[in-house]
Amino acid sequence: MKKIKLLWQQPKLYFEESLPKKVNWWRTLSLFSLNGIMFMHYTMKSGGYYDISTAKSFVVSILTLITLGVFYGIISNLIVGLLISLTGHLFNAQNELKKIYNALTWTYLPLVISIPLLFSNLIMAKILLGEVNTVTSLTLSILVILSTLIQAVIGVWQIILLYKGLKVAQSLNATKTILNYILGFAIFGILNFYLIKPYFGY
After folding, report:
1. pLDDT in tens, 15-71
2. CB of 115 closer than 8 Å to CB of 31
3. Given CA atoms 19, 24, 26, 29 in this order, what sign does their dihedral have?
4. What does the alpha-carbon distance between residue 96 and residue 20 come to, in Å, rounded to a whole number?
5. What is the rounded CA–CA span in Å between residue 21 and residue 18?
6. Cα(98)–Cα(95) distance, integer angstroms
7. CA–CA separation, 191 vs 104, rounded Å?
8. Is 80:188 a contact under the CB 8 Å cutoff?
9. How many CB atoms lie within 10 A of CB 202?
10. Is 106:14 a contact under the CB 8 Å cutoff?
11. DSSP per residue over the chain, as a string?
12. How far apart are CA 135 and CA 151, in angstroms?
């Protein structure tokens, strides 16, 4: 929580101090996994892939979310980081891959708050499908709304952190930082559609 507080209060300083350090791969891959789980949640939700009608289908949905999310999060972020480094040459960026991976890692740190809220929401949604009294139903509905709002705020914060982190990592101005990320992510989008997406079946 201390690191999250520092990221909130002094993100630029935090990135300047943290990015030159050696990549902690356990932490990096763990946070990449959380990012993948969140992405896969939105993918499954928008595609109607969740089935929480029974206890068995609920467990299967959760396990599918975690399994696909972890693999996709790790693979996609490793590729995106590499692409951002490669496209950075077009903008005369400093392209030390270590710093880019560290920037992505710390960008996803707030997910240690979002992911528990996500699973809480899914559990509450499962409970609401059952026979519950009016007071319980109203209470859980309010909690789901509040939790969703908190996740939305954290999502916006992550976008800001991503911008600030990459700006520090590659020593670019605001415009070049944004353009470099858009270009790298666009290339990943193409690769994702033709090479990665078919294997995940979403």
Report:
1. 999 999 999 999 999 999 999 999 999 988 888 888 888 888 999 999 999 999 999
2. no
3. positive
4. 9
5. 6
6. 9
7. 19
8. yes
9. 15
10. yes
11. -HHHHHHHH-HHHHHHHHTTSPP-HHHHHHHHHHHHHHHHHHHHHHHT----SSHHHHHHHHHHHHHHHHHHHHHHHHHHHHHHHHHGGGGT----HHHHHHHHHHHTTTHHHHHHHHHHHHHHHHHHHS---HHHHHHHHHHHHHHHHHHHHHHHHHHHHHHHHHHHHHT--HHHHHHHHHHHHHHHHHHIIIIIHHHHT-
12. 24
pLDDT tens by residue, 117-150: 999 999 988 888 877 777 888 888 899 999 999 9
List the domain boundaries for the chain. 22-200
Helix axes 11-18, 134-170, angle to 10 degrees: 60
- In one-letter notation, the amino acid at residue 147 is S
Mean pLDDT of the chain: 89
How far apart CA 123 and CA 183 sit, in angstroms, is 38
Which residue from 60, 64, 75 is spatially nearest to 40, judged by alpha carbons? Answer: 64
Please report, for residues 32, 145, 175, the alpha-carbon distance to residue 81 in angstroms, rounded to integers and kept in the order given: 11, 33, 18
Q: 0.85 cut: is pTM over it?
A: yes
For 89-120, the pLDDT digits (tens) are 999 988 789 999 999 999 999 999 999 999 99
